[in-house]
Amino acid sequence: MESGMISVDRWTAGSQAYFLTHLHADHTAGLSGAWRHGPLFCSRLTAKLIPCKFPGFDLSLLRIVDIGSWHSLSLTSPSSGSRVDFAFKAIDAQHCPGSVMYLFRGESGCTLHTGDFRWETSSLSTENGRAVLLDALKDQTLDTLYLDNTYCNPDYSFPPREVAAKQIVEIITSHPNDDIVIPIYSLGKEDLLLYISQALNMKIWVWPERLQIMHLLGFHENFTTQTSLTRVRAIPHYSFSSDTLKELNEFHGPTIGIMPSGMPWSVAWKDGNMSGGSASHVKKKECSRNTGSLGRNLESATKYYEVPYSTHSCYSEIQEFIELLRPVNIKGIVSSRSCYIDPRYYFGHLCGPEQALWRVQQKLDYEEGLRRAEVADIKPVTEYVTPVAGRKRKNDHIEFFGIRISRVSLLRRLSRGVRITESESLPE
DNA sequence: GCGATCAGGT
DNA sequence: CACACCTGATCGC
């Protein structure tokens, strides 16, 4: 990529093919209804959402990438003018609706771009993704892994989403008479809301634009814009703060805030907080801040929970992902504001040419084992032998050790400053 | 008046 | 903390 041929989640002119992993704003900086720099490859669901996110977008530019099958692409080398053939495949990224990773196979080797992704160890989708990736890579090394390194730090530890979803349902049922507000963004966490809706057999309120998204995603029964139908509301993230929660409590009655987020969940927070169960990650806060003016409503100490429901992989999941793939090289894709952790700071020992070959060798050994097992008429092991530790490799002079500040300014510049104008049109 | 970018907020 | 946004100011046209 970056050779003037393929761009992933980058929208400046000069590429021959543009790939979109998912429709969050930090991956669409530069996209707009007027964008027309070239063909845009994305998942079917993402394509469905594009007109809503970018009104006026020229839909003839869209190239739908069906998940799981190989697609081919023929481009022209900008330097030599000769033809360059690629094959690529989309894999479910489990981050938000429509989100995918892209695996590219070309003359210059294999590249995997994860976009944002969640790699929950025991989920069926991950199991499928694992098989698809290993099968797609075959005996080749993965040359470059562009990695969602949002939580690429051992301090970040949180449970699978299902666990967090159950915690949230518990919180809601333990406050049977209170209103509940759950801050969400314009796309993502639908599975959480659906889970709550089904577990409690109630509809969930969303704002009108969000209902339109829900309908596009195929959810017709579980969401409503009628306040009177439910006590559980998913509200725009930007409209939520301790002040708004306090106001809700003062003017609308008892309201609990539940923040589903992966962010503050480092191991340092795990124990010794004021939440009931010490094993639980749930953080409960009493927001009794009283910033003047209305004052003295002592009764309105509002309840606010933070629950580790994350759409990004935690550290151990990233580790497992890298141990599976053993890439030659890893590059982080996060465009964070204040710091950039090079994935090789923690995972340098899992990449490099030797490690990549190690993976291939593992696969060959595994297949050889299967063959022998068949001959010996022994039941083959159905599970993959997951590579353990294996930190033999000495890092011979990888220069990117430690925290890199200089890259940040570059990444920031690439990802800043989108304004998504919400569709004017009404639902239906 | 418009889109693109930036500053600053949740 | 820093997710994935938001609003509002400013720049260039």
Q: Would you mind describing this structure in some detail?
A:
By secondary structure, this protein is an alpha/beta fold. Helix content is 28%, strand content 19%. The chain has eleven helices and 17 strands. It has helices at 44-53, 124-137, 161-173, 190-200, 208-216, 242-251, 267-270, 315-325, 343-347, 353-375, 406-415; strands at 6-8, 17-19, 40-42, 62-64, 71-76, 83-92, 100-106, 109-113, 144-147, 179-184, 204-205, 223-224, 232-236, 255-260, 283-287, 302-307, 329-332. The strands form four sheets. A six-stranded mixed sheet has the order 5-6-7-8-9-17, with helices on one face. The protein has a five-stranded mixed sheet with strand order 13-10-14-16-15. Strands 1-2-3-4 form a four-stranded parallel sheet. Mean pLDDT is 81; it is low at 268-279, 288-300 and 377-428. It binds a DNA duplex (10 and 13 nucleotides) through loops.
Rg value: 24 Å
Main sheet overview: 6 strands, mixed
Class inferred from helices and paired strands: alpha/beta
Order of helices and strands: EEEHEEEEEHEHEHEHEEHEHEEHEHHH
Q: What portion of the residues fall into strands of 2 or more residues? A: 15-25%
Taking the alpha carbons of the first and last residues, their distance comes to 40 Å
Strand order of the largest sheet: 5-6-7-8-9-17
Tell the overall outline.
Answer: globular
Helix % is 25-40%
Number of strands: 17
Q: Which regions contain 5 or more consecutive residues with pLDDT less than 50?
A: 268-279, 288-300, 377-428
Number of helices: 11
**Nearest-integer average pLDDT:** 81
